[in-house]
User: Fold these one by one.
Assistant:
Number 1:
Amino acid sequence: MAALRSEIRVGAYHDSLSLLELQLALSNLPGVLDAGVAMGTDANKDILAQSHLLTPEARTAAPDDLVIVVRAEDDAAAQAALCQVDELLARSRRDMEQDYRPKSLESAAKMMPDAQWVLVSVPGRYAAEVARQALRLGKHVFLYSDNVTLSDEVSLKQTAAAKGLLVMGPDCGTAIVNGVGLGFANRVRRGPIGLVAAAGTGLQQVSTCIHQLGSGITHAIGTGGRDLSDAVGAVTARQGLDLLSRDPDTRVIVLLSKPPSPSVARELLRMAQDADKPVVVDFIGYGPPARRVGNLHFVSTLDEAARLAVELSAEAGGGGSERQTEPEPAGFAPGQCYLRGLFSGGTLAYEALLLLQGYVPAVYSNAPLSEEYRLADSLISQGHTIVDLGEDEFTVGRLHPMMDNDLRIRRLRQEAADPEVAAILLDVVLGFGAHPDPAGQLAPAIAEARARAQEAGRRMEVVAIVVGTDEDPQDLGTQVLRLEQAGARVETSTDAAVQYIGPLLQAINPNLATSRPVSVDLSVLHRPVAVINVGLESFAESLAAQDVPVIQVEWRPPAGGNERLMAILEKMKGK
Amino acid sequence: MAALRSEIRVGAYHDSLSLLELQLALSNLPGVLDAGVAMGTDANKDILAQSHLLTPEARTAAPDDLVIVVRAEDDAAAQAALCQVDELLARSRRDMEQDYRPKSLESAAKMMPDAQWVLVSVPGRYAAEVARQALRLGKHVFLYSDNVTLSDEVSLKQTAAAKGLLVMGPDCGTAIVNGVGLGFANRVRRGPIGLVAAAGTGLQQVSTCIHQLGSGITHAIGTGGRDLSDAVGAVTARQGLDLLSRDPDTRVIVLLSKPPSPSVARELLRMAQDADKPVVVDFIGYGPPARRVGNLHFVSTLDEAARLAVELSAEAGGGGSERQTEPEPAGFAPGQCYLRGLFSGGTLAYEALLLLQGYVPAVYSNAPLSEEYRLADSLISQGHTIVDLGEDEFTVGRLHPMMDNDLRIRRLRQEAADPEVAAILLDVVLGFGAHPDPAGQLAPAIAEARARAQEAGRRMEVVAIVVGTDEDPQDLGTQVLRLEQAGARVETSTDAAVQYIGPLLQAINPNLATSRPVSVDLSVLHRPVAVINVGLESFAESLAAQDVPVIQVEWRPPAGGNERLMAILEKMKGK
């Protein structure tokens, strides 16, 4: 009959590697069938219960208490095992080649002044404070710990950004800086591809795949999984993107994340467009606006991200060639900056909204991509606007705009008279059922609008997306010719039209440049890495194995992990 | 001084084409500067106001009232114009070559018994009733009208589906059936590509682009924009997909929609996987699970959809070759059907969830794609399950599963003992910081799990995704070898693993076959098209221009559009 015995150590702290080693050592003792060692959280109790290791005593343990349970062949064996706990714990102490272990970050920093990184893997509730100390000392932080609050993440990253420091994490599993793997990281060949990832194993998957394809990476910057949320605003991802954009060794950038906040994604993508090198984007599970927008290349899987990055980096020149031919922004008057799209086709309007995301921050519409960009009044444009004139609101007791150009022509005049409008985008859908001669009606209105703008000293760019075939009743060739003669640029798909108009809008809206945090000095990527490690010793061992100078801090939770005492200490510090 | 004059005709009905023509005719009268003709809805009043055509009288008009406004050089000219309204309205009556116009659908159907289609473009609030009549007569419906309620759409489509009839729409702008354009449609070369589209101008854009690329289409089935919502459940899209799957002339299918409901999308995609021909999917703005899943090819723009479809249709064989090599489902015991994924990497778990969407209906997780699939208890799997063991809940006071295999091994045993489990998927992440020999711990557990299953007469498929390089400290080659020797199949990416396991799950879960509506007879695609048109006469003219037999119904709103009288009539009919 098997015997179950447990021991609770109130408020005892040991790092989780030591606990695992204790559990394994206990399991291997003679007569022991199974063992469980964990802090007394509810989750851990559930896990113990599932392995039939939850004793009534363990059930009463607090989250700060260490629970040790042994199931053995008989009670004597169980007792004997528990008696060895202290000895086994002492043995689990790693023997790193480090004579003296500083007790604080400050002393560690004095011992190794060249260490520009602090690697933090203490339990989540202590981690933010350790990271804060590291930032005060002017160190970059690799914050492996999870269970850190969102508000701590926000304040840490804002503090860091203001100082030109990086905080990778919290819950950052991996990074590779100047050839050195921090946290979990594969040994990957050095090469021309840089990574920024809010997805830890995503970074590992892509970097190993790049290695297997014969290429390699410059640096791989982890951000932690929440970096691309609205609250955090991609502080670290933007810093990383900025660093890799400026890094001459990085010829192609890969940007990885689980689905980001749409507004954060938009801003990050606009910043990526300034990178002057190809950026492969995998926002896993997030609808890409297109396969390619300028230098941005969207992919759907990690596999594909690696393949495409290798392919692009192999192409002659790598960067540089990516810059699109700059559109000619001459002729616009000061203040002319907005696009107004007047669509008869709902899907085309929708696709235009999607594609424009790659170029301008916000596009308003009566059928917007998200409610925040809904026009207050469909009849009045604001900022960049795409109106779908085929929406139900416009078609009660009225013909569809594919048949009736009247409303569109009136709106065209109105938009062209607006001194803030620089460009007008419209679709002209031919075919059976549609107006027999849309260009015949639209072309004079376009010519008139352009002439009036010119009289007022403004340039009015008009782009028409013509959907039709040479067999359509309207005669495609004549329709195109009339529109062109009126001064419109004619394209045959929304994609092509936005590829023309998007860069033009960017050129005349120089204030679109995204707000960047204080630039992180490029030396962070190029100086030899040295690290102060606080938490899991195995990370220090991994660094030592990579011949990286590392110093292990002998960290203990404040007040021995006693919550009440900690609160008092905090108060005394006047925080 | 310009004069503004208006006239209100209470409860007068004219189709919107006649109203547009009246407006144009009034504008062209001598001395007239501008004219507005519209039903007195609030939206239309706003539009009149914007053109400075809203008189105090017009402001009081009801939505059923016809508003006619003229701005002229002087009052006499305005008066003279209004006097001509009746004459102009009479003149706007189209002179189609049709001697007798039936007043009802029933008589039209008797006049042209071969007409299998009814094209409905009467105002939205009357449209559902006309469509209902058409279905009663056994006709397919092309429902151009918008402003039809969602509940009417649902009931119409359910009625139709039960009878093997199609309802394209409401708000269906376009379709091409057997070479005939219904509604708005371009004249497109016939060819090997079939379209199903919940996106009207999307259908037009893709079909014209296919034409311009030198290819052509078999049929293009419109569904209306709401078809892929949860409420409607893609009734028409599923019918369309089913028709085109069976149509021998269609070698490639293109499926278009603005972002569909995720659950509807999943079901539609599973159905598309059975098509036995390539299906190009553009769910505009919807994150594709991958670039390719079996015969499904995901694209991001309409342009790309057309290009890829043409490319695929040009490939030798077209269909058939698309079928993946069938996985070998032998050896599983009855009841073995589920996948259990035990991940240490959050991103890999997430990507696995995304990719599995293409193969199985629901995958539960502690970090699910949508909340409805959240595990009630992370420790207990249900159905297909992917557990991310690196989630915060598992890592309080416990090492990350990349370092600690204990929890994963316990869970592996638990899953393998479950008689419903057929396959186990796990990731093995190598590199610095990770466990020094994960395969050394996992392989024996895998071998044991497989052996136990075999003893119990079950097959246990184990797939391991190994992330690592040949330079990693663990020695990739040895790790892979140990896993393979234990009987695991080793892949190096989630994508590759799911490409293997997905079809296997489908093979052992034959009940995944989606519920199909009553099949629509293929003859609808191949019989010469004949149409009864109710509403806009221009649609009848377009059909006549295509040499299609068409009959125009002389439709008037019930009770002359008088709402109160209509309600009484409805009551008398005992509805």
Note: The first helix of chain A runs from residue 16 to 27.
Number 2:
Amino acid sequence: MSEPIISEQGAQKKAKRRSAKAGLPPGTLVYIGARKTDHVRLTLIQYRDGFFKQQELKTIDEFLTIYTATESDVMTWLDIGGLHDVQLIEQIGTACQLHPLLLEDIVNTEQRPKREDYDSLLYVVVKMLCLGATRTEILAEQVSLVMGERLLLSFQENGTDVWAPIRDRLRTGKGRIAASGMDYLLYSLVDAVVDNYFAVLEFIGEQLEQIEDRLLTAPTPDSLRDLHVLKREMLFVRRATWPLREVLSGLGRGDSRLMTESTRLYMRDVYDHTVQVIDTLETLRETVAEMLDLYLSSMSNRVAAVMKVLTIITTIFMPLSFIAGVYGMNFRHMPGLDSRWGYPVVVACMVAIGLLMIVLFRKKRWL
Amino acid sequence: MSEPIISEQGAQKKAKRRSAKAGLPPGTLVYIGARKTDHVRLTLIQYRDGFFKQQELKTIDEFLTIYTATESDVMTWLDIGGLHDVQLIEQIGTACQLHPLLLEDIVNTEQRPKREDYDSLLYVVVKMLCLGATRTEILAEQVSLVMGERLLLSFQENGTDVWAPIRDRLRTGKGRIAASGMDYLLYSLVDAVVDNYFAVLEFIGEQLEQIEDRLLTAPTPDSLRDLHVLKREMLFVRRATWPLREVLSGLGRGDSRLMTESTRLYMRDVYDHTVQVIDTLETLRETVAEMLDLYLSSMSNRVAAVMKVLTIITTIFMPLSFIAGVYGMNFRHMPGLDSRWGYPVVVACMVAIGLLMIVLFRKKRWL
Amino acid sequence: MSEPIISEQGAQKKAKRRSAKAGLPPGTLVYIGARKTDHVRLTLIQYRDGFFKQQELKTIDEFLTIYTATESDVMTWLDIGGLHDVQLIEQIGTACQLHPLLLEDIVNTEQRPKREDYDSLLYVVVKMLCLGATRTEILAEQVSLVMGERLLLSFQENGTDVWAPIRDRLRTGKGRIAASGMDYLLYSLVDAVVDNYFAVLEFIGEQLEQIEDRLLTAPTPDSLRDLHVLKREMLFVRRATWPLREVLSGLGRGDSRLMTESTRLYMRDVYDHTVQVIDTLETLRETVAEMLDLYLSSMSNRVAAVMKVLTIITTIFMPLSFIAGVYGMNFRHMPGLDSRWGYPVVVACMVAIGLLMIVLFRKKRWL
Amino acid sequence: MSEPIISEQGAQKKAKRRSAKAGLPPGTLVYIGARKTDHVRLTLIQYRDGFFKQQELKTIDEFLTIYTATESDVMTWLDIGGLHDVQLIEQIGTACQLHPLLLEDIVNTEQRPKREDYDSLLYVVVKMLCLGATRTEILAEQVSLVMGERLLLSFQENGTDVWAPIRDRLRTGKGRIAASGMDYLLYSLVDAVVDNYFAVLEFIGEQLEQIEDRLLTAPTPDSLRDLHVLKREMLFVRRATWPLREVLSGLGRGDSRLMTESTRLYMRDVYDHTVQVIDTLETLRETVAEMLDLYLSSMSNRVAAVMKVLTIITTIFMPLSFIAGVYGMNFRHMPGLDSRWGYPVVVACMVAIGLLMIVLFRKKRWL
Amino acid sequence: MSEPIISEQGAQKKAKRRSAKAGLPPGTLVYIGARKTDHVRLTLIQYRDGFFKQQELKTIDEFLTIYTATESDVMTWLDIGGLHDVQLIEQIGTACQLHPLLLEDIVNTEQRPKREDYDSLLYVVVKMLCLGATRTEILAEQVSLVMGERLLLSFQENGTDVWAPIRDRLRTGKGRIAASGMDYLLYSLVDAVVDNYFAVLEFIGEQLEQIEDRLLTAPTPDSLRDLHVLKREMLFVRRATWPLREVLSGLGRGDSRLMTESTRLYMRDVYDHTVQVIDTLETLRETVAEMLDLYLSSMSNRVAAVMKVLTIITTIFMPLSFIAGVYGMNFRHMPGLDSRWGYPVVVACMVAIGLLMIVLFRKKRWL
């Protein structure tokens, strides 16, 4: 099994980077994470029922010029791909009047999924998990969504694009999405992220099946290691899903003023999907636990099998060797040594004893 | 043990199919699951106290014609057997004005049991578990129940019919059912589903007893595998029951406007049955855990027994072989070799040592 | 240890019988359980301060005649011993206007302890556990108590009489009981049931001590099996006690109109006893877990001990046998073979090596 | 390790004694427990700011006489040492108008720590744990505190006096205690009891350290048994502390009318101490679990070490013995037997093989 | 691995010191803990927007003189470094009118993190964890923060200074801090403490990686011990973090009058960090658990490997030695002994049998 690499590495690595922030005043933007893309991509989409426009921007000023000139019934979605350019993030923050702590959270890519209500904004952090192009690794990145009444900002760490279908739907004007408000777009983005979790679970499930096959045919210590790698991946998915569940539960209940009643129904639907992901995850965890059991028991069965062979060999040959040893003693006066039939009789006895042992082992089901 | 096949397979399989939905707009109907029946069966039952009529329909139009012509005090129950014909489901949705998300849930057969309140509708999802005709496998399918004031739609994946007794009671007008409203029919359907859980538990219990018998007489690694199969089945039942418990608790408490007070009492009764199922399940789980313990301990006892044999053989024959070896040395001057009694005395010593060992082992309770 | 038999057997058995009900309309009375007594016993007790009358009745009509003629300040307690006569139960139900579901619960002897409030009735189910006459088995049966304002019905599965002291107190008029209302009688009955739990725990504790003694002196696989039997018994007591705790907590809090304030104080007292039972049970469970640990560790100590013997024997005799083997080679030119001192020197060497080994093992504390 | 004896023995013993009460009417006083002191000690203390008087009483009448003659601003504390004289307890109950159930709880020394509010009384049960005079055993007894507006009754099982410092403070009038009300005295008594828990934890911690030392140097099965003894002691402390926490939380929150606001602050302080005790206990529990792990792993390391010795010996000597055996065969025509160099060459080969083996084992780190 | 020493040692040590307080009246100040610094350092900082003054004080009188002369819009922060001088603490208590219990809590350095609201004061206890200068040990100390409207007292056990950056920010007037109230300073201090937790986690994570490397290359019992040391450290961090989470949750929710709304937002941010610490900790715990699994399984793999070698050697040489033994018997009439080809044939047979065995083992994958 090629060890799948989750881009956002294990806990040790994280803590290391995180400690770089100690001592800095709150609101200082420090990008914690590897630089995942060279160039920060700014994609601006504006839409209304029957209207759609997509542009790649270069600077924040460009965005400001366009945004201030936008009619009030047009929805604006700015997708920022890449978080390492801290100055740019700060410019966006100033332009859109975001709270310093909110900006700090956006670039701190080790956030747990969470929701925060600012006065006229809704801030949602989710973890995007998807399979790489070769389908042999799980890509993980943090996605921050900031929603206002007419504006939605989405911050990604790099360019994994799971939102292409949503842009298509906006462009073609199919479905409810183009005719709905900002909250429905937020729902669609989160829904697309959660939908990809199923693909990741499927990937983990496939690997689990492969390991299971190997465990049943030829258990090796490597299988154990692979199981532990899988376990960590599942732990990672779990940590992404559990807090998300609460976030979605809150959005579905309607704690926020910015969510309309009809979108809440859809949010509850994503919530149901998250619960389904958690359920599947728990089942996978149980399966992994069972496999560990199976592995350990098959290992100890192997030891038992080796023991049996050892015991059988010893039990058969020790008495025979002893008899040979007895007739190898150099006493002058030993009955039978001079007899013609001495040797054949003793050898016959040996064969008989050997066979007897084998019959005994058969009976005890050791052979 | 013939491995019982739960029709709705393990978690890995599910996730795979589920991921096919990624990228599609919400409300898109995709039937996730194997096509379990060729032909979608539409059974229409209409009843009132003293009146009963059952028809097999071909199309939804037929249903609409009949339904609109129905008197207002007649109860209508449409049972849809088969979910793969997505267009038909959509037609039903349009005819009965069902929410797109509700329809999506109906065909997504990996739903957890849940309840949802739409304005004038109550939507309940339960998992039907029953034994196959040969009583060697557990059949699982998702059942969706949509209840209005005078209409109840029941969606099944295939044709397992556990509701025949209810139709009989409606036909004969026996019991409260014919004279009661839609909510009592809903109760009866759920009750019939839960009643079948007991048969499934009984089946699992029987298999557990068989495994236990084998464990006590001749424990093999296969027993372990069978236990794990049982464990998964129990996990499956558990996942069907736990959320159902909450659904029924809510219906019994009376959160819904569509449930009458008297039916709530009955709902609380089904709730009690569900708790009983969970209780039995927990007991079975404890039993499985105990058996795993027993298996492991009997396995390690076997190893210990093998060790003992090995040690006994070694301990008896090593000293004897050594003595034989000593008298097999080729020194010219060795006392006793030329003596007449040398050989008998040494052999006697050997026998004595061997017997002493055996006595010692007896004392130590190794023999 | 004679395996204690809990009359109401394990979970598998139960589910089997329970599934017989599938398909029957709710309210159909099916007695689930073994027929534990031939004849249904009807004991009528009527009392008031200073007045006491006990009669054995034959029919329900007899009861009705007496009951309707009873003065309004006389308390009536009808004790029904035996549930298999479903018709009789139905007659009682009709006579006392009990809800069909309540009757169904009474004969369904696999109920969990629970409380239900009907309009003018309080329905309580508890599990009676007591030791058999020979004090070697635990008897279990379901007890249903239906309390009205002036009437209390108690349903037992068979004739285990733990309520004799209460009847005595009623007869002699000692204590508060005769002067109090129906609710105090209910309390007294439940209190008597809970008091017997302590005897059962004591019985389990004694058996645990016996097993512990055997584990410390001569651990056998049988001890393990006995421990598991005990564990199941404790699980059974646990399942009887935990729900009871909630029932009593509710009665003590005073959710029910039929409980007077002063009796609630007594109910809280029984509640405390139940908590004490649960506490003791948890302690016993911990003890069982410890013993399993001890058993496993003593088992593996045994294997280790066997290993040591094996290793010691091998380590001492292998080198000695090798030396003997060397001098048993048939080379013509071997130094020492012809010498007078060859044999004694070699034997002395052997003895020295053997002693050295023993000293070494002493040092390593293997001997 | 001398097994520390907790006076109030394990669960089995308790249940036995407790079952003696079955069948008795509620409110019947049965002293459950060993008779821990011969003579019931009645110590009366009366105090007010600047006034203190301590008397040993003989009878309850004496107390009544004094108490009724007491001025209304004098606080009265009656400490009863010994509970076996049930009649005396009953007299106190009558004199102070205590509820029969309260009296029953006082003599039932297997109560869990709890609090009960009677109309004008507050009843608190705590477990006193302290070290014996020799500091080698943990003494446990139940302490019941009944507090009225001007009267506090404290019931102890025997004479362990942890309250001497409090009496001293009352006598000398130091601190807040003499000038405060009954509730502050209650606080002081409970505080003194909880303070002693730390000494008990310290004792357990010391023993744990001793066992750890032994485990690291010479692990024996006895260490395991000692660990289990410690575990039971900790379980005992735990059962005394957890319910106490809730009791104190309630008193600190101010559910009771008899607690003044300022004393509640102090109660919250004892509550903090209890939480600290629980914390320490949990840490100790983790330590015990770790030691069990260490023990088991060191045990299995020992087995592995023994195995290695066995394998090394076998692997070195078996091939050598085989070579010796080959040259011990009696074939007439064997090359080398007659040669002058046969013997030395073969012996040299043997030595070479032996050394090779040792080098190999060194490489594999077995030596 | 050099065992990292957490200054505040394990639970046993603590309890010992704590028990010294038994019997003393509440409010008696007893410093529990090692004397960590010789001299008590008193650092006074006074600031306002644009104004900053830092002084080292000698006595409390000095402080009082300055404080009373301070203008009402100047914030005062007194940092007390060292708690062993109980008299000084008492003087501060008197000067600032602190409750005796509060003072007791300050010097009792085994407090759990907690928050307490006194009338005009907010009292917060946190555990400061940081790495020592050599980055090889974790330093732990208790920090008590007492906040009034214009005054903040911070009590440290010794001089670990994690607050230098905050003083710098105050001095330079950078950020919000100088312009904000006391509550923002409180937030900054707590934030600095929590930020250091990440460094500690990073340290633990690094050690974990080192142990993991060693486990994969050469597992020794020492690795196990190191894992347990790490586990204790993590337990320690956990005990510092969990209660802190609740403290911060309360401060973020705004239970306290002294916290302004804007600072609460920041408090929720620290709360998020604490949750992140807990998350990382749980991941580390899972990793440790996995490593224990890996260690145990690699250990048992070693035993299995040893067993295999033993069995292979035995299985190959026992039959060969037996054959040699047979031809070493001294029968006069044995076929082949006198033959020229006897010896070569037998040796060839032996070699053949040996090779056969090896082939067999290859097939069984034992070689």
Note: Residues 1-5, 7-16 of chain D have pLDDT under 50 and may be disordered.
